What does this fold into?
Amino acid sequence: MQKISVLLFLAWIGFLFYAGIALFTSGFLLTRLELNNHSSCQEPPGPGSLPWGSRGEPGACWMASRFRRLVLVVIDALRFDFAKPKLSQVSGEPPVSLPFLGKLSSFQKILEIQPHHARLYQSKADPPTTTMQRIKALTTGSLPTFVDAGSNFASYAVAEDNLIKQLTNTGRRVVFMGDETWNDLFPGAFSQAFFFSSFDVRDLHTVDNGILEHLHPTMDSGEWDVLIFHFLGVDHCGHKHGPHHPEMAKKLSQMDQVIQGLVERLENDTLLVVTGDHGMTTSGNHGGDSELENSAALFLYSPTALFPSAPPEVSRFLRTYSAVAQDLQVKELHRLQNLFSKASADYQQLLQSPQGAEAALQTVITELQQFLRGVRAMCIESWARFSLVRMAAGAALLAATCFLCLLVSQSAASPGFYFRPLLIPVVWGLTGAMVCAGLLAATGLKLDLVVLGAMAAVGSLLPCLWKAWIGWGSKKPLTALLPMPEPVLLLLLIRFAGFFSDSFVIAEARAAPFLLVSLVLLLVAQLHWEGKLLPPKLLTGPRFGFLTPTGPSRHNGLHALGLGGGLLLCIRVSGLFHRCPEETPACSSSPWLSPLASMVGGRAKNLWYGACVGVLVTLLAVVRLWLRHYGNLKSPEPPVLFVRWGLPLMVLGTAAYWALASGADEAPPRLRALVAGALVMLPRAVAGLAASGLVLLLWRPVTVLVKASTGAPRTRTILTPFSGPPTSQADLDYVVPQIYRHMQEEFRGRLERTKSQGPLTVAAYQLGSVYSAAMVTALTFLAFPLLLLHAERISFVFLLLFLQSFLLLHLLAAGIPITTPGPFTVPWQAVSAWAFMATQTFYSTGHQPVFPAIHWHAAFVGVSEVPGFTWLSALMVGANTFASHLLFAVGCPLLLLWPFLCESQGPRKRRQPPGNEAEARVRPEEEEEPLMEMRLRDAPHHFNAALLQLGLKYLFVLGIQILASALAASILRRHLMVWKVFAPKFIFEAIGFIVSSVGLCLGIALVMRVDGAVSSWFRQLVLSHQRAGEQSSLVYTGAGSSAREAQPHLLPSCSQEPLAPGTSSFYNLKP
It folds into this structure.
């Protein structure tokens, strides 16, 4: 029941955080209102009559058609500088050698030969610069919103008035070829269509080649009025290789040939429009609002001269939207309407009296530009309007939940902690949710799930906070509310305050390692203050610290210093894998973050591939050596057998996948289908093996070796404090009782061996590390599928992750005393260091809390081109982004287990039972082998309380981060960098918290599963002996280099199982 209470309470705490995040998000990230109004020829776009008088012409609506046909070519991610000519070298400056310059040479030739027939513009794309949002913006003329970026994986039909619908309504035949996203946005709108899957960004040619196959036949047939092509090769090349790769030059040259072919086939009444939907960053990604992402090329050409224009339809949209939404500023709306009316009047006057046309036309253009800029600014401000009430309520709910975590974690550290009251907040929360739902249903109001969840959270928080307030009173000082050490509190406050600075958030990749290094140095200093780096006799002066030594150290000073130095070295090396934020142009990202397929040199690629495979083998060897060191690798249980044979298969599958992925483009044409199939099946095989290993671990988590033997146990060796024969009466008094007991046991053994069957001895080995072995095995099974989602050279970071974790755990264990029989506790500095390391690893794996830095290639690992796999792709992108959060959250219980595991560093003196001094003097001092993690089972109540306390502390550290990001986003909501820095940071922190909280519950649940399996194992063993009616002895062991060398231990009282009648418990030196 205690285990269930702990898991339920942690899950409920997570729900409270989720409710606060959802409530804050509902007030911070608002979407705009979409109008279903559609324009018609009967409604003119502006005031007054249409001066051009063309309604009677066939196919004309508001104005005469200057072109009968349109060819629209969308080259995805066509950045403006891709269309620039190759500049000649300027004297005194180094030559510019960018592979994409000058590849679209047809633009420059046309502009030079026919300047009145062509125009090249720089188009500014409004963020978010994702493909689906940009297509909606191009076809509707509206602005995409920030939260629309989340729909890029799942597109929905456009309901607003749009260009495609207007063309089809006027009877135009619209033919489309290319990206299948258009089919999702405009289903059934095309008279003829050739859709190609845009799913795999590693595929540079399928979509483009499919378009080229149908382009010329369709164009020559003449059965079209509007022809739309959407090429994806440039965008996919940017994602896969980046804009500076030679493949980008090849792809742009191919697009140049396409444009030349179109120009040659154009008729005089046809307009050619070539445009990019957005740009790309220097790494080839997009989605944000940087200059390179917003910059796109727009090229217009026609065999006839270009082109007079007419006033836009923006004014009517503004008038309609303001009437429906009623959230535009009235004063600014009137000003813009008056400005548009004046521009329209000036335009009408210009048409009636052409005298001074040039100056008058410039005035009209200026007025219309001011009008359009004003409308854009007002709409952006309106669509970024916030609900301050919901934002404040969400932040308050997050703060209250953090406070609750702090209170309950303090209570769980007390010896008299009770678990039953933990379920009371859950009951109160469910009651509050039902009451709120009933009131909403009775009043007929709309049921808002976000508000309902918030009411449930408030209903569970209020009784707890009120009870804490009443119980606290004035008995304790205010400083007791923050029981963590002052240096740790200072570091947490620095991190909390840093979220309010855009410079800190941008430079967090460097700030996070600094905070982690500071905490590591603090841990080393703490060991010094506690007398664990120098012998106690040297700590005679107050200069060595303010703490007195608490006891003998389990680690010598050089060992602890070596752990700290190794940890600092790992942190420094992992910092070499970094991605520079866009705001620091002087910084250069690590070249090791890119996949091996993007490398040009074959020799260098092979060397890097060999190094990455070596890292895989090293990771496998480290895990197996660790399990062998503690003896768990000798267990015949299925998970251990899987570690022996399944893990090497996972390494082999990962290495084979990397080999094929890095050379897929170089494969012979007849083998490409086979390579493509293997690239899909190998990741699935590795993921399937990992899932099988986890299932086996959950099924049989007790990795112990059991041996049964008959015959009397061998007696212990006589230990003496002197060498040679006894030389004094004291020596005789010491050794004679031992000889007597030795003779007694030997005589008893001879008598028992004369019986037909001796007593049964059952020895269980490796119980002392059973919890940690299961955790390390589970983390290894999780790491390999997550590693597949990253670039090959990120494997070095994963190896450093394991090394850093082991070093930090050993360093923390050196300063955590083992209290028997409890209560057990994990200090705040350990939890904070673990959380800081998760953040540091997030940046070391090449991530940044911005959308352009998302590793989209992870969505296509092991996934075939099946539309139903969209959710799986989004899940894999999330697993790639938050892999460090998941691994450290699942491994968080190791902070509690590792100090007990490190008890095997040396034997301890067995405590003497009470007796007189003479008996104590003649009884030899015996060495007690460490019980290790079995000490936790000596006090199951304190064990469960420690797991609860650990989970709450970790959630508190993560909770203050999401609270800080929410407060920063709300306070700085009008800041210039809110949508570029603070809003993405809040979203990444929120998703990271959700992943971490789920992983934490899974890790604690795994420890409880192992604990329950150990109890079941003891119960079944004892019951089987009871049924057999045998006289038996039951012993267990902690750790050893192998099962043959392991030392068995007495069955602890924590098993809580009665031994069978006649069963004896004893201690053996050798099994």
